[in-house]
Amino acid sequence: MSKLPGWLGRLGAELTELGDRLEERRAAAEAEEDIEGDRDAQAVVPVAFVAAVSTAEDRSTDPGRVPAPPAYAPAVAARPDPVAAIPWGMRVAAEAGWRLLVLAGTLWVLMKVISAVQLVVLAFAAALLVTAMLQPTVARLRRYGLPRGLATAVTAILGFIIMGLVGWFVVWQVMDNLDTLSDKVRDGIDELKRWLLDSPFHVTEQQINDVAKNLSDTIGTNTEEITSAGLQGVTVMVEVLTGILLAMFSTLFLLYDGKRIWRWVLKLVPAQARPGVAGAGPRAWRTLTAYVRGTVLVALIDAIFIGLGIWFLDVPMAVPLAVFIFLFAFIPLVGAVISGALAVVVALVTEGVFTALMVLLVVLAVQQIEGHVLQPFILGRAVRVHPLAVVLSVAAGGMVAGISGAVVAVPLVAVTNTVVGYLRKYGQEEALRHAPQPRGATAVGVAPTRVSAPPPEEHRDGDAYGGVAQPETE
Q: Where do transmembrane segments lie in this chain (predicted)?
């Protein structure tokens, strides 16, 4: 009988523990039912919040825990990341936009710097063009055994003398035929006046005299502006002479020490990009040389044939007009139009309408032969530029730097096209070279191909810029 109270005590403790467990299970079941009801009736409750509610219900007896919200409280959806809320297209546009703004700002600053030192830039560009024309002569003289300094001096002196003689010849011919041309122009104006009086336009002599009087009055009232323009012309002449001297000195040093200058420029390039730039430089120089020599040859052919046509038609100043045609041929598209129009106008005011029409036919025939036969055959594919790129580059160069900019624009575009094409091929070759090597039977089919090796002339020619990447032994 003494053991009965102890047994009853243990039974009561077990019943109490069993009741507590049943109470906990009932509370957990009610909590799960409340959560499922909230999901069906309202917005989705985050998983983390459900876990927190379950934990809070399980540990509702802990006085340090925050109680769970009631079942009737509205669910709050989680806010997404702001980056994930922006559409993908807008994110790409923003990433590209600020990079384009940086590039535009860099180009703007570069153009400001170039405009501040425009004379120096144009003089150096002219020196590069002249060097590209004269450098093959230096290389040929060196192959004949002349030292580098003597070959450079002979080529530079002969080149400068020839260009000076051409300029002097043009001025001499213009001055020698100026009186004859003025008489011809006066006669042409009188003939034009008679034609207007007899034409069906019903122009009277009084109207022609009024136009001449207004022109004379305009010139008389704008004497100050004309004088200031003359003073500005003197300033321009001083700048032109300065640019000519800078171009001559730059040409001399480029002919003599071009290899060392190019190697010094390569040292400024980052080491990772140096192999690609070193390979693109010789190809760019060959493109520039081919462009200059081909343009000189095409311009010479145009000047000879158009000049002969003008001379046979007995137009005054045939030789100066031929020289002007040669010089304007260095401005693609626009130069041919200007020089041809100048020849037609001179023929019109001096020899009449029929001679002007014949000159126009001669100019159009020669230019058609030039565009469809001479340029594709002489210049070749190495310097071929799309006509749209030619027009846009000439227009942009003319707007930035006038006639000099129009002359430099097309060779710059041709060189840029060559450099970009080579760097693209070089990048593809490097990507294939560092790609994982294929194994098995497919190794032959997907083996990387190398960029074609440069022609051997650039390595045999010690002075050519095509061999500047080779080490020099002094």
A: 150-171, 234-256, 290-312, 318-338, 345-369, 389-415
